[in-house]
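Sample intake sheet
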Amino acid sequence: MLPQELSTLAGELRVSILEMITGAQSGHPGGSLSAIDVLTVLWFQEMRGVDPDNLRPERDRFILSKGHAVPALYAILAKKGFIPAEELKTLRRLGSRLQGHPDRVRLPIVEASTGSLGQGLSVAQGLALGLRLQGLASRVYCMIGDGESQEGQIWEAALSAPKFRLSNLCVIQDNNQGQIDGFTKDVMPLEPIPDKWRSFGWHVIEINGHDIPQITAAFAEARRLQESGNDKPVFILAQTVKGKGVSFMEGKIEWHGAAPKKEEALRAVDEVLRGGRKS
């Protein structure tokens, strides 16, 4: 897909995110909107074998470790045909498959149930190791959050993946600088993020997580490194904006886990459809 096509698609997915969270009057718009550009490129251009009509063992895998951003994933699954678009209206309802965090039992395309922050990367590492042992060329992609990166388990995985030379593992940090308790710099500073991961033996790529060509290039670099025989896992630091695309949500901690009212949602959707605020 061309960059403009991916950008347009990301806008459509933003609308889906806003509509389902508004309908449920529950959910996490801030981190879903910050992650959607990266996830759009990943699911609609980079990942291989994610075809609802032909899911094969050699497909690429994705783990959403920051599970509260699952509205972004549900919007993608509906667009790709894994779930009916009408099902998005059931977000967080009793009995729905679309709960507030991913559920691999109800949705088999979901590779892991996540939401207990810090655990998803360990699952992704296990998947990457298992796929390699099976002789499959599949890649495993894992999106982590910045607030989540204050968890010790993240750093245990960061230490061990290079030891096992998991070049088929690619981690993306959605670095929107905010978490439920405030800004990450105030709760528990993470910097220097690239230096830390690089020192553990990862190949580090830094990008603007809302710039489609940069995102595309980063994933291409990660795959090229693996195919060239590089033995390092890849860490992509995606600098993003919480609530991206909606002016009154952008960079605002209060939109981490608050659903917009109907009037706010109408304004937000209008902004997204008109292109919102520019990067």
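Comment: DSSP finds nine helices and seven strands in the chain. Residues 253 and 264 are 16 Å apart (CA to CA).
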